[in-house]
UniProtKB/TrEMBL annotation:
SMART domains: Cation_ATPase_N. It is found in: Membrane. GO terms for cellular component: plasma membrane. It catalyses: Ca(2+)(in) + ATP + H2O = Ca(2+)(out) + ADP + phosphate + H(+). It comes from Coemansia biformis. The keyword Cytoplasm does not apply. Residues 288-362 form the Cation-transporting P-type ATPase N-terminal domain. Belongs to the cation transport ATPase (P-type) (TC 3.A.3) family. Residues 66-79 have a biased composition (Polar residues). This is Cation-transporting P-type ATPase N-terminal domain-containing protein. Gene3D superfamilies: Calcium-transporting ATPase, cytoplasmic domain N, Calcium-transporting ATPase, cytoplasmic transduction domain A, Calcium-transporting ATPase, transmembrane domain, HAD superfamily/HAD-like. The chain crosses the membrane at residues 531-554, 560-586, 1074-1095, 1142-1171, 1212-1230, 1251-1271, 1283-1307. GO terms for biological process: intracellular potassium ion homeostasis; intracellular sodium ion homeostasis; potassium ion import across plasma membrane; proton transmembrane transport; sodium ion export across plasma membrane.
Length: 1321
């Protein structure tokens, strides 16, 4: 067909009705999903009622579904079903069935499950295509009246959709599109006109929203179209109505000039009530079209499967569809990042303190606080800028060039220039440049791991897929190729159907870009914000108390208000933000040494609160390498392949392990090593029926492999047994030398060890036969038969398919590959000539193969089921020997499927598995002990996944809460609310899709859990981004997933996640310790100042003293607490409650008691110094004979109109200095006491945290310098102290230790009694 030939109208009215009906169902499903989202605050049951009891949404959707299932023209509709433009989810939905009885009660053919995966704009675009392609020009003036009424209701609902804030609501783009569709259906279909005429005018008024549509602006043509639709609607209504009936009364005057203007234009138009013709070609909407035949696809896109698009068609399509480019990630500019740092609540509090101290004239204090703010902002902004590359990898995912056929010429072009309809050629090694619908394939296989996570190539087939569903898993779209996937084998051609943001990878890009605009706070950020709010309230309350008490004592308002603001500064722990940041940064460094690269600082602490870890199976819980670990020969003898995943063929062996009984259970007899002929034949099949290569890479200095993972595993098992393909087949050449390999190379000097087989033909594996067969000719070693040629056929595949083409099974003779001992102590392999002779004898001898009876077939089936129950992937193996005349020509056709795959001898079963990683069982056990639920999420079958989960301890017999497993298909039938309410929550999710992963994360978060989610492919990026902790694989993960994650595993090992969780718990413990320490110290200052202010006493400290104490006594000791070693039971206690704040009532009470002791002790010393000569005795130059002009008094004796800090006589200066010394040293000692809430200081030890010892000595040294260094002590308003003062200070420390030990003893006693009481209950 010529590209310019218009596609014929193939189907009639029923096809159009079916297409519209599918879209109506989708519209109501999406509207129902939006109704659910709008009621997220309600309970699950209430939300269900709001949506499913909505008579309009429920009745209209069900009515349309029933019409699709049971209309009188159902036969025609079923045949026309695939004419609807299908779209699979961006995830793997369960595949539908042609039998509607297999679907859920409220499912329908083509129903979009909860509207996910199909956007509203896509459905409207598809409807527009139906109008343009099948209705325009009144091609179908009459359609089903009921369907038209339901379509009218759906469009009216969509037309009313708005977005924006309450004061700035505007119509959505979808609402505008639906409005114009509404007008076009009025114009084209009589039944739709009748439905509009039956609608109450108020309903039309609410949906049309004419005032918003006309006042929102738009071009002249658009406004003309708006008024045209008004005229069309009025034509449907009874006589006597005019446009004012469609507009609210208070809006009529504003709209009248515009409506009258365009009404006059319409009246002058002889064509009267018609929609303006937009002109231009009709292009199909972007979709996968997996249900369309190649012929229909060519007709839709006006292209050609040989010559492609004409060059003059490209520009118009590019203007319509856009360029084939992925959306660029939105990066915040640096100034916005800095602004976010400065608007953090704790930083705002510090800024308020800076302003307050500056107004009060305390410039020294303002400078110190300013330095703290600047340092915190710089550190935080730098970390944010580094993390701002979260989506930059998306820009590199698009391919750069594409091989496209235009005008009959194959040429390379920039992939961004592709347009839908282009014919693209794919070859092995190419990256797919856009979403394609394949039109021809030649053994084409594409690795779609970037979307599905599975690294095995998917065989492609251009045939249309006939299913009764619009939802099809990506992995089942055999006729499609997706952008950014890789061609691993074969070649093919495809028509571009989706480009740029409409492609599958583009949809993921858009979703992640959208999620990146919302900054999600981590738990510690939320808790610190909550703590900051409490501190703000406390500071304001303290300021109010100071002002009220001061005014009550007769002081003037302004001076006492400034004093209150200065005093409120002491509430704010200046070092909290900085210490938290530094502690998490140190945790990042420690995690990096344990192969966990944390990309965002707050994520470090969040790890400690994880309650659920959702982990991929392949490569995380397992090694990520397939290994053939078991071999069961035809007689039921079990062999084990050791070191099965090692790429070095010299490592490991095939050893006897016992027999398998009639029920498939292993029975171990002894450890004697011997082989059987059936086992050796099976290993021969593993070697010969194989295209993988194992070679030594001299440059890399390691063994490597090429080929399918399953074939690599089988080839390795054969090589470990000494049966390398290179030593058996003359035509085979290895990819590299194999130093010290157990097999000999093809260039062996021994004539008897030369390769004796020659490849004749190969029948590739396909999904229909589920078998692969290869035919060889035995040139040497076979028994001489005059005039005959000996052919050896080897076959592998699904066990049931192999058994179905077998007539015999191998006998129980002894093995033939090895004989005696080699020089290195291992088994010596026989020469290849003898091995080949034994193969022929075992397969062709009358006594070597026995008939395959029903009992033997059942025994093989039971052995297969037993292996599968252990989580193994099972393949069957068979072979045969044939003789043909020497002069008979041999062709590939003659050696085809019918000849090669029949009359075979069954040799055995191979069990393959991706084995669990070393140490994974212990890591899962540690998670269980720590109260963390481990959830396995995999694309494997549920049986395999469950077996692996049981073997590593995720599913445990002694814990019923872990014994639930469901599939992705079952999950699709549940709403988010129902998934969250699953009890017990499943431990295994099998055959899941990317969307399933997002729903799992959402359900767990809805249940109050903190979720860690692992991922590697682009398809996982959205789930990784949505989890509380996104974990990407550093080795096997894609760049976009790494950039979207919070943490990257450098070794792809689950054990590293557990280690990171342990480190996260340690960090939270340490954050809790220094918060307790900081707040207890600052609370002591608050209490001290509050008592002095209420009693009208001279303030114990000046503002600069407070800041100096907070710097030297807060920051260094708090930093050392941040490096405190983990507690011994850190992974033997349940996770902390995610809803619980940093401080509980109990810890707050302990904090207040500790602070009160420090405040009371300091106040007692200060009071003694104020009321007695002790204020002068503490000075080093104390002279008892010198007169003291200070009159001891509790009350402030200065001028009540000035600040109390002006009373700086030597007496009061000494009192302040000794009080400052007592409180500072008590705070430093409190750091040692804060290492545990209830464990004695003598158990935690003074030297266990050497960082603390150093930091406390540093702080103490700074304090001494501030007291005795001239100039510095004047700046800090301190005076030197004598030895009497030091006796008082250290006496106070001794009292603090005794008080703390008594408090901890009481806490331990209370906890012990509570445990005993709980045990009795």
């Amino acid at each position: 067909m010529s590209p310019d030939t218009a596609p014929p109208v193939i189907d009639g009215k029923e096809s159009v009705e079916f297409q519209i009906g599918i879209h109506v169902v989708d519209l109501f499903d999406i509207l129902a999903s939006r109704a659910l989202d709008s009621t997220r605050g309600a309970g699950a049951g209430r939300r269900y009622q709001l949506v499913h009891n909505n008579p309009l949404l429920r009745h209209m959707r069900d009515a349309t579904t029933n019409m699709l299932r049971g209309s009188p023209s159902s036969t025609t509709i079923a045949s026309a079903e695939t004419e609807c433009a299908q779209r699979p989810r961006a995830s793997g939905e369960s595949r539908g069935s042609g039998d509607s009885s297999n679907q859920p009660a409220d499912a329908s053919p083509g129903r979009a499950q909860d509207g996910a995966g199909i956007s509203l704009s896509e459905v409207l675009d598809s409807l527009q295509y139906v109008v343009d392609y099948r209705l325009k020009g009144r091609q179908q003036p009459h359609l089903d009246a009921g369907l038209m009424c339901r379509l009218c209701d759906a469009l009216l609902l969509v037309m009313a959709l708005t977005q924006g804030s309450f004061l700035h609501k505007r119509l959505t783009d979808d609402a505008r599109t639906a409005y114009f569709l509404f007008g076009q259906f009025i114009e084209e279909v009589a039944e739709f006109q009748h439905c509009v005429g039956q609608k109450p005018t108020p309903d039309l008024r609410r949906a049309l929203k004419l005032h918003k549509r006309i006042t929102d602006g738009g071009s002249e043509d658009e406004k003309l179209a708006l008024v045209t639709i008004i005229r069309l609607v009025l034509a449907c209504l009874p006589a006597g109505n005019d446009w004012r009936d469609l507009v609210d009364e208070h809006e009529q005057r504003a709209l009248a000039p515009t409506v009258d203007k365009y009404a006059r234009i319409i009246d002058d138009d002889t064509a009267s009530y018609h929609m303006p013709v937009t002109g231009g070609a009709v292009f199909p909407p972007p979709s996968l079209y997996f249900d369309r035949t190649v012929e229909k696809l060519v007709a839709m896109f006006k292209t050609d499967v040989v010559t492609g698009l004409a060059p003059d068609q490209v520009d118009e399509r590019r203007a319509f569809y856009g360029r084939n480019e992925l959306p660029r990630p939105v990066h915040r500019p640096w100034w916005k990042i800095v602004w976010v740092q400065l608007t953090d609540l704790m930083v705002l509090m510090l800024c308020a303190a800076i302003i307050a101290t500056a107004v009060d004239g305390e410039w020294k204090s303002s400078i110190v606080l300013g330095v703290v703010v600047v340092l915190n902002t710089v550190v935080g902004a730098w970390q944010e800028i580094k993390a701002g590359k979260a989506l930059s990898a998306l820009e590199n995912l698009g391919t750069t060039t594409a091989q496209v056929i235009r005008g009959g010429t194959l040429e390379p072009i920039d992939a961004a220039d592709l347009v839908p309809g282009d014919l693209v050629e794919l070859n092995e090694g190419d990256a797919v440049p856009a979403d394609l619908r394949l039109v021809s394939c030649a053994q084409l296989e594409i690795v779609e791991s970037v979307l599905t996570g599975e690294s095995v190539g998917v065989a492609k087939d251009p045939r249309a897929i006939k299913v009764r569903t619009r939802q099809l898993p990506l992995g089942d779209c055999k006729g499609n190729a997706f952008m950014s996937t890789m061609v691993s084998h074969g070649r093919g051609r495809g028509i571009v159907t989706r480009v740029g943001a409409k492609s599958e990878i583009g949809k993921i890009s858009v979703a992640i870009n959208r999620s990146s605009l919302t900054v999600r706070k981590t738990p510690i950020q939320r808790k610190l914000t909550r703590l900051g709010l409490w501190l703000v309230l406390l500071a304001l309350s303290l300021c109010a108390v100071i002002v009220i008490s001061g005014v009550s004592w007769g002081r003037k308002f302004v001076p006492i208000f400034i004093t209150g603001i200065s005093l409120a500064v002491s509430v704010i722990p200046e070092g909290l933000v900085a210490v938290t940041t530094v502690t998490m940064a140190l945790g990042v460094r420690r995690m990096a040494r344990r192969n966990a690269l944390v990309r965002t600082l707050p994520a470090v602490e969040t790890l400690g609160g994880v309650t659920v870890i959702c982990s991929d199976k392949t490569g995380t819980l397992t090694e990520g390498k397939m290994g053939m670990c078991e071999l069961v020969d035809a007689s039921g003898v079990l062999f084990e392949v050791t070191r099965s995943t090692s790429r070095n063929p010299n490592e490991g062996e095939v050893s006897y392990r016992g027999h398998v009984d009639s029920e498939g259970a292993q029975v171990v007899h002894d450890a004697q090593k011997h082989s059987t002929a059936a086992a050796d034949l099976s290993l021969v099949v593993c070697s010969l029926c194989n295209n993988a290569e194992i070679f030594y890479d001299a440059e890399a200095g390691q063994w490597s492999s090429l080929g399918d993972a399953t074939e690599v595993a089988m080839a390795l098992a054969a090589q470990k047994a000494g049966l390398a393909k290179s030593s058996m087949v003359a035509a085979h050449s290895g990819a590299g030398a194999a130093p010290n390999a157990s097999e000999s190379s093809s260039s062996s000097s021994s004539p008897g060890d030369a390769p004796s087989l020659v490849l004749l033909a190969e029948n590739a594996f396909d999904s229909d036969r589920k078998r692969m067969s290869v035919v060889f000719e035995a040139r040497s070693g076979a028994p001489a038969m005059p005039g005959k040629r000996c052919l050896v056929t080897v076959v592998k595949g699904a066990p049931e398919e192999i058994l179905s083409v077998c007539t015999h099974q191998a006998g129980s003779a002894s093995g033939f590959v090895h004989h005696g001992m080699a020089a290195d102590g291992g088994p010596a392999r026989r020469p290849m000539r003898e091995v080949t002779a034994s193969i022929v004898a075992c397969l062709g001898g009358a006594d070597s193969a026995i008939p395959l009876t029903r009992e033997l077939t059942q025994a093989a089936g039971q052995a297969c089921e037993g292996m599968a129950s252990r989580g193994l992937r099972v393949l069957g193996m068979a072979a045969k020997v044939s003789y043909i005349d020497a002069d008979e020509p041999i062709t590939e056709e003659a050696l085809g499927l019918a000849w090669a795959e029949g009359g075979l001898v069954f040799t055995g079963l191979a069990g393959l598995i991706d084995p669990p990683r070393t140490g994974i069982v212990d890591s899962v056990r540690r998670c269980h002990n720590a109260g963390i639920k481990v959830v396995m999420i995999t694309g494997d079958h549920i049986g395999t996944a469950t077996a692996i989960a049981e073997s590593i301890g995720i599913i445990r017999e002694d814990q019923p809460s872990t014994q639930r497993a469901i599939s992705g298909a079952e999950l699709d039938l549940l709403s988010d609310e129902a998934t969250a309410l699953l009890d017990p929550f499943p431990s295994v999710f099998a055959r899941v899709s990317p969307e399933n992963k997002i729903r799992i994360v959402r359900a767990l978060q809805q249940g109050g859990h903190i979720v860690a989610m692992t991922g590697d492919g682009v398809n996982d990026a959205a789930a990784v981004k949505g989890a509380d902790i996104g974990v990407a694989m550093g080795i096997g993960g894609t760049d976009i997933t790494k950039q979207a994650a919070d943490m990257v595993l450098l070794d792809d090992d689950f054990t590293t996640i557990v280690a990171a969780v342990e480190e996260g718990r340690r960090i939270f413990d340490n954050i809790f310790k220094f918060i307790m320490y900081l707040l207890s110290c600052n609370s002591a200052e608050i209490m001290l100042f509050l008592i002095a202010s209420v009693l009208n006493l001279d303030l114990p400290f000046t503002t600069i003293m407070i800041l100096w104490a907070n710097i030297i006594a807060d920051i260094p000791p708090a930093l050392s607490l941040g490096m405190d070693p983990p507690e011994l039971d850190i992974m033997d206690r349940p996770p902390r409650n995610p809803k619980r704040g940093v401080l509980t009532r109990g810890t707050t009470l302990i904090l207040v008691i500790q602070a009160f002791f420090m405040a009371a002790t300091t106040f007692a010393v200060f009071l003694a110094a104020v009321l007695t000569p002790f204020g002068r005795i503490v000075l080093p130059n104390y002279n008892a004979d010198a007169p003291d002009m200070y009159v001891p008094s509790i009350f402030h004796q200065g001028n009540p109109e000035v600040n109390a800090n002006e009373n700086m006589s030597p007496h009061i200066a000494g009192a302040r200095s000794v009080a400052f010394g007592v409180l500072t040293v008590l705070q430093l000692n409190q750091a040692f006491l804060s290492r545990s809430i209830d464990v004695s200081l003598f158990k935690t030890g003074l030297l266990a945290n050497k960082w603390m010892v150093g930091c406390v000595l540093l702080s103490f040294g700074l304090y001494v310098l501030g007291v005795y260094v001239p100039g510095l002590n004047d700046w800090l308003e301190l005076v030197p102290l004598g030895w009497v003062a030091w006796l008082v200070i250290f006496g106070a420390v001794l009292m603090q230790v005794v008080f703390s030990e008594l408090l901890k003893l009481a806490l331990r006693t209370i906890a012990r009694r509570q445990r005993l009481r709980a045990g009795h209950q």
